[in-house]
Design brief:
mainly beta, 11-stranded antiparallel β-sheet, 7-stranded mixed β-sheet, 4 helices, 11% helix
Length: 326
């Protein structure tokens, strides 16, 4: 009944200049341990990058570096990635493809790991290929994955069944107890830890603080407002037709009209890809009131509704100075 196509287009293709993807001040450390100040293209990777683009000067030529070229790179005050030659568990995290083996499926790989907390004990993160794993190192030790794995118990040989039990390998609790533990930390406190960013970041910060060691928290993103709320008044161009298949003479077409609408738009900015994606929820009130004379009858319609649409918004940047909406 409503012509909202244009509103949908405007919600999806929206331009804003506050979070442009561009080259920002950063650094890289090459294989000769030489630190080079440069400008790195910050796309705020959701999945850990396998390569990145950089410039030696802000407007210079663009080059690409991989794990074969550098040991580390970072964006000043924002993020840090280090190269690690380490074992990574390639076990599936998807319910329908879980295995019956509680042990990790190790693969020796060279990766860029994202640093979340840096200190005497450092916490790293890897996301990609459907995996989300944490790694750690203590002082000058090598980087090791914190082991967490869900697996089937009594796994069926022919097919998946909803009656199958899922067990969890929480070896990361043991790893933290042995290698990353304050003197006053109890076993019960460690066993309550979930394999999540919030729990592990908090734990590693506490460990570094209790050892009196300085730490750097890379998990906090500077100057980002992740939630927006707006009142959105608007106008709908609406029409209504009533069709009677039994008696076509009773069909009624009401005149097209402009009606007022109002909504409350909630937007949650997704924490990756430089804030270009967001989730929308916009409850909206609208109405259609009209009447029509049909022969000797006067037909009246009084329609009111509240809708609860959800959607995805993508911010499209045309250039560094663009502030107009598409």
């Amino acid at each position: 009944m409503k012509a909202n196509f244009l509103l949908v287009i405007l919600a999806f293709f929206y331009s804003n200049s506050y979070a442009q993807i561009g080259f920002e001040k950063g650094y890289l450390i090459n294989n000769d341990n030489l630190r080079i100040e440069c400008f790195i293209k910050n796309i705020e990777w959701k999945n850990n990058p396998k390569e990145f683009e950089y410039r030696l000067t802000e407007n210079g030529s663009t080059a690409t570096a991989t794990t074969d070229d550098v040991k580390e790179f970072g964006i000043s005050g924002y993020s840090r990635y280090v190269k690690a030659d380490t074992k990574i568990d390639r076990s599936s995290m998807e319910l329908l493809t879980l295995s019956a083996d509680r042990n990790p499926i190790w693969s020796q790989e060279r990766l860029f790991l994202k640093v979340l907390v840096e200190g005497k004990a450092t916490l790293y993160y890897f996301e990609g290929d459907g995996l989300m794993w944490f790694f750690y190192s203590v002082s000058d030790t090598g980087i090791t994955q914190l082991v967490y794995k869900e697996y089937f118990v009594n796994f069926p040989k022919d097919h998946y069944s909803y009656n199958d039990e899922i067990a969890v390998n929480n070896t990361f609790h043991l790893q933290l107890w042995v290698y990353v533990r304050c003197a006053n930390t109890s076993q019960g406190q460690i066993e309550k830890l979930r394999y999540t960013k919030s729990d592990l970041i908090k734990y590693f910060k506490k460990y570094n603080e209790c050892n009196g060691k300085p730490l750097v928290d890379y998990s906090k993103k500077p100057g980002i407002n992740s939630f927006h709320l707006w009142i959105r008044p608007g106008i709908n161009y609406s029409f209504l037709s009533i069709l009677n298949s039994v008696n076509p003479g009773s069909n009624v077409d009401f005149n097209n009209q402009l009606n007022f609408r109002i909504s409350l738009e909630s937007e949650f900015i997704l924490p990756f890809n430089k804030n270009k994606w967001s989730l929308l929820f916009e409850p909206a009130y609208q109405y259609f009131i009209s009447e029509k004379q049909k022969d000797t009858k006067r037909i009246t319609v009084d329609f009111k509704s509240i809708e609860f649409p959800v959607g995805i918004r993508y911010y499209l940047y045309l250039n560094d100075k663009n502030t107009q909406n598409l």
